[in-house]
Amino acid sequence: MATDYDAPRRNETDDMAEDSLDELKARRNEAQSAVVDVDESDTAESFELPGADLSGEELTVKVLPKQADEFTCASCFLVHHRSRLAESRGSQLICRDCAA
Q1: What pTM was estimated for this model as a whole?
Q2: Is residue 33's pLDDT more than 80?
């Protein structure tokens, strides 16, 4: 939209008094119809399709063995720190999440 900088300036009270209802509705519709410029190639790369062939992908994760201050929950089979131990049922150790 071009702006004429030589035209006399109007304040908001002048705008409200002179604008018709049709002009206000047209301005509202123009403000709501904003167009977003999205590059489709960038957004398509971020989505992973179900059933996609991932045979060529490799994960590099360093796996550590269970430490002396950790236990494996008998319910969820996750390794937790001893501070997460809620109860022991015989030889079975249960974490706080599963005990709740």
Answers
A1: 0.41
A2: no
